[in-house]
Write a structure and sequence with these properties.
Bound molecules: 2-amino-2-deoxy-6-O-phosphono-alpha-D-glucopyranose
Radius of gyration: 17 Å
Shape: globular
CATH architecture: 3-Layer(aba) Sandwich
Length: 269
């Protein structure tokens, strides 16, 4: 059965609510298809989702033994064992605590010598794995997804990207100073992300409210790369009250969710 195409907006009370809702969407996907190909994201936002998934693995037997994963991005020039690399982030906060097989994990390699060759081979491995079933996304304050900064082509593929100043400032907290933040990153492109069968974007807090509004209700624009989600047939956006506060149609989105719950058939993620 094919799910009805939709852009679904779920507004939860707080960060814990987002994390539980996102984890249950991901768990449902894995329980339906144990060999699911997951696209994964880093940043503070998905941390709670990973915590919930780890809990489900420990307490409810959720198994990742057949799951294949592809991460969105990695800082360029950081070796995998650097404490600030997205490699380290993913292993510490998720992979080391569930039963994903190491050979089923792919994260862009920030140390590659031949960037073009590497990017093409990353795309090829996604294709060989059968494509991404569910891609998890956060959103930057400038409306980026992955590291697709304002001005990125909406058809872009995995490539090397220059970070925007705002992103460098936002991520300085992890590096102990702006001067230590890498200026370049390898990231899946918007075209790559749009090929995933389902997208799940999370946002929390008032500082994301502008980006969320522009992404969901703004015009489709390369200046807000998350607005490309509007082109995708299966998108679920899970946000908290604070991140939802600039949405003009937020009462309508709540109403739609209430109606959806009263309809029996599965309307997709
Ligand atoms: C980085 C990541 C994005 C992430 C964004 C927001 O730029 N490349 O994937 O969505 O930060 O991060 P946070 O969730 O910490 O606000």
């Amino acid at each position: 059965m094919h799910a009805v195409p939709r852009l679904r907006v779920i507004i939860e009370e707080d960060y814990n609510g987002i994390s539980r809702a996102a984890a249950s969407i991901i768990a449902k996907e894995i329980r339906t298809k144990p060999w699911t190909v997951l696209g994964l994201a880093t940043g503070s936002t998905p941390l709670g989702t990973y915590r919930e998934l780890i809990k489900m693995h420990r307490e409810d037997g959720l198994s990742f033994s057949l799951v294949r994963t592809f991460n969105l991005d990695e800082y360029f020039g950081l070796p995998p064992d650097n404490p600030q690399s997205y490699h380290t982030f993913m292993f510490e906060n998720f992979f080391d605590q569930v039963n994903v097989k190491p050979e089923n994990i792919s994260i862009p390699d920030g140390m590659v010598a031949d960037v073009e060759l590497f990017c093409a081979s990353y795309e090829e491995s996604i294709r060989k794995a059968g494509g991404i079933d569910l891609q998890l996304l956060g959103i930057g304050r400038d409306g980026h997804i992955g590291f697709n900064e304002p001005g990125s082509s909406l058809g872009s593929r995995t490539r090397l990207k220059t970070l925007a100043e705002e992103t460098v400032r936002d991520n300085a907290r992890f590096f102990g100073g702006e001067d230590k933040v890498p200026r370049l990153a390898l990231t899946m492109g918007i075209g790559t992300i749009l090929e995933a069968r389902k997208l799940l974007m999370l946002a929390s807090g008032a500082e994301k409210a502008g980006a969320v509004k522009n992404a969901i209700e703004g015009p489709l624009s390369s200046q807000v790369t998350a607005s490309a989600l509007q082109l995708h047939p299966q998108v679920t956006v899970v946000i908290d009250e604070q991140a939802a506060k600039q949405l003009e149609k937020r009462e309508y989105y709540r109403y739609v969710e209430k109606m959806a719950k009263s309809v029996e058939h599965d309307t997709g993620i």
